[in-house]
TrEMBL record:
<dbReference type="Pfam" id="PF00106">
    <property type="entry name" value="adh_short"/>
</dbReference>
<keyword id="KW-0560">Oxidoreductase</keyword>
<dbReference type="InterPro" id="IPR051468">
    <property type="entry name" value="Fungal_SecMetab_SDRs"/>
</dbReference>
<keyword id="KW-0521">NADP</keyword>
<dbReference type="InterPro" id="IPR020904">
    <property type="entry name" value="Sc_DH/Rdtase_CS"/>
</dbReference>
<dbReference type="GO" id="GO:0016491">
    <property type="term" value="F:oxidoreductase activity"/>
</dbReference>
<dbReference type="InterPro" id="IPR002347">
    <property type="entry name" value="SDR_fam"/>
</dbReference>
<dbReference type="InterPro" id="IPR036291">
    <property type="entry name" value="NAD(P)-bd_dom_sf"/>
</dbReference>
<comment type="similarity">
    <text>Belongs to the short-chain dehydrogenases/reductases (SDR) family.</text>
</comment>
<protein>
    <submittedName>
        <fullName>Uncharacterized protein</fullName>
    </submittedName>
</protein>
<dbReference type="GO" id="GO:0005737">
    <property type="term" value="C:cytoplasm"/>
</dbReference>
Length: 205
């Protein structure tokens, strides 16, 4: 389905893309990256929102919440995806007008699955804000699917991945997780829009 494509990306941290714009994702509404893309392509068939942070210092817990840390998580983990998607929405809808079903894939987490919440005290990090911000992303995913039915919009839990965030003890390599995501994306259908799933099964937000 995506044998020929041009890939653009935003990045933070140590990753490298072929073509990129470095900018804090929480300030994405203030940069011109979407205009740059619009000048180079006429439409977009696949948008993956993969930005995320998981603060491991003080200020993320139920008993000692810090407003700035909480806000930063929402800015990057959920609000950022909404702003990025809105900036690219005209290009996605242009693709839809040609008979294609454009995909919006929001990389989420099982920690944002409300029906699967476990006691925060049982988590190694004791963080409440990461799950809160990913639950907000899941809500946005469902809302977008209802508002823009021409798109296929899903939230994906990629598993515990050996990234800078996941750490070396994680179960999946970046290559394994990426392969699983690609396989799932290639199998997505209209009836999947609005769902929260991992690479193997559908989850319930």
């Amino acid at each position: 389905m995506f044998l020929q494509m041009k890939v653009f990306g935003l990045r933070q941290g140590k990753l490298k893309n072929e073509e990129e714009s470095r900018s804090p994702i929480e300030n994405f509404d203030k940069i011109v990256f979407s205009e740059k893309i619009a000048n180079q392509v006429k439409d977009i068939h696949l948008l993956i929102n993969n930005a995320g942070i998981f603060e491991k210092e003080k200020g993320y817990s139920i008993h000692q919440p810090n407003r700035d840390i909480f806000q930063k998580h929402f800015d990057i983990n959920s609000t950022g995806a909404a702003i990025v998607t809105s900036n690219f929405l005209p290009l996605l809808l242009t693709a839809a007008s040609s008979g294609f079903s454009p995909l919006v894939v929001n990389i989420s987490s099982i920690l944002g699955c409300i029906s699967r919440i476990v006691p925060i005290s049982s988590l190694e990090n004791k963080s409440v804000i990461y799950g809160m911000s990913k639950a907000a992303l899941n809500y946005y995913t469902k809302a977008l699917s209802l508002e823009e039915p021409k798109l296929i919009t899903v939230a994906l839990h990629p598993g515990w991945v050996k990234t800078e965030m996941g750490g070396d003890n994680a179960l999946l390599s970046i290559e394994e997780a990426s392969s699983d995501i690609v396989k799932r994306v290639c199998l997505l259908k209209k009836e999947d829009s609005g769902k929260f799933m991992d690479s193997k099964m559908e989850l319930t937000p």
